[in-house]
Amino acid sequence: MLKDFSAMIYTTEQVRSGEANAAAEHDVSMAQLMQRAAQACLLAIKQQHPVGAQLLILCGPGNNGGDGWVLARLAQQAGYRVRVAGAKPSSQLAKEAAQAWHDHGGSSIVLTDVQSQHFEGVDIVVDALLGNGLARDLDALYQRVVELLNHKARGCWVLSIDVPTGLDSDTGCPKPIAVHANKTVTMIAMKVGLVTGQAANFCGAIELADLGVAGAFYRAKPALRAISHNVVRECLPTRAAASHKGMFGHVLIVGGGPGMSGAVNLAGRAALRCGAGKVSVATHGSSQLAVAVSQPELMVHHVDDDLSRLLTLASVVVIGPGLGQTEWAQKLVEQVGCWEGPVVWDADALNIFAQQPIRKPEGATWYFTPHPGEAARLLQSSAKHVESDRMQALTKLCQNFHAHVLLKGSGTLIQNYGSDMRWVCRRGSPALATGGSGDVLSGVVGAMIAQHVDAENVLPVSVWLHAVAGENAAQNGERGTLASDLLMQLRALVNPTQQPG
Hints:
- The chain has helices at residues 12-25, 30-48, 63-78, 92-103, 140-152, 214-217, 229-235, 261-273, 288-294, 308-313, 327-337, 347-355, 372-378, 383-388, 390-401, 437-450, 455-473, 486-493, and strands at residues 8-10, 54-59, 81-86, 109-110, 124-128, 157-161, 183-187, 190-191, 205-209, 224-226, 250-254, 278-283, 299-302, 316-319, 342-345, 365-368, 404-407, 413-415, 422-424.
- The protein is an alpha/beta fold.
- The chain folds into two domains: 5-222, Rossmann fold (3-Layer(aba) Sandwich); 229-235 and 245-498, 3-Layer(aba) Sandwich (UDP-N-acetylmuramoyl-L-alanine:D-glutamate ligase), CATH 3.40.1190.
- The strands form two sheets. Strands 8-1-10-19-18-17-16-15-14-11-12-13 form a twelve-stranded mixed β-sheet, sandwiched between helices.
- α7 (229-235) packs across α17, α8 (261-273) packs parallel to α9 (288-294) and α12 (347-355) packs parallel to α13.
- The longest helix is centred in the N-terminal third of the chain and has 19 residues, at 30-48.
- The chain is elongated.
- The two termini are 15 Å apart.
- Pfam families: Carb_kinase, YjeF_N.
């Protein structure tokens, strides 16, 4: 079976330091790698537009620009009409590629001379400007060219080579703007900055071209692994015929402060639909009736400030959905924080925790599920700072709080405490950007713990289920999809015969 190399994701430095050695091991020169990169891009163009279409290729000074110069020659030979605007080549490979283009009769203009009229009549724009490794903001020239491309290339199909220009290939942040590509053909390996942060706004469809050197390169440990359906199949086997509810755990969900009964309702229903044996809800007196009538299978308890009896019955506690930050909520957080069992900390439970940290009990296992704002409060930082380096924020949360952590957002990241392996979820939908979606996820996590999914796989399994349920729920449209629409999709996904291949 062929290995799925796109599931292994690397930092820019890993790719830079490893590609030359991988090429040498396969007896491939760097010039041949550039030729193969250009051929991969030409194939992507052919799949999109027939021969004869008009291309505008924008080439930067380095090897990314070299890919563009080679592509220009190959595309012209294939029958495309090609225009090139290029910076002065700085690397030896780029110089040779530009010279070969001109030796074969090609012409070009200087990149600084690019104006609006150069985009007229163009079918395809190729971004071969800067590629990976951008660590600082674009200078004035490249900002102008990127702005011009994004504005004038509307209606054109835009292909970025390796990484959209302006996108940080390690963080997924624009610096401060980036090319909006319809497709990105990335070379050798997937980069972290293509799969998390704001990357989805810029990359379009992503295709990996391993250039024939994968066998050597992928022996290096990746910075991230993409979650696949296989982990779900392995962790949720078919149930034994003689099963009973006691085998699948008792989830206690704590939350639902005044006016926020819907959050614990969603979390509880998600836990039920994902297979938890029993689900109890500990909620504020003003929310008890609303939660109780919403789902008869939920055991709903009005609690003032004493959770002790319910904690003795629980296999796992989920605290936070609709909790609020009142004195009532703070007392519940204090009690759960002293419980020696698995706890899923979500929403306002995390916000209270950030204000009054609790020492983790020896026998407890903690799962944190923050969005960037909650992560920022835990780290005494800002959401902007968290988003500027999501990998770093993830690791700090793990280390600081001795917790398994999922950092929500596009390209949700996961790291388990005590492990240097990180996961990323490449599935999902903008339909998940709606109130209650996070409450559903917390219920899914609780259900996975209750069903004895091993601790290292709880968060990867839960995030994958939630993401794919969001995709499936949005098949008739992302806008207007509700968090409650995920519930029946989750039921289908947790049953092995229903999982997609």
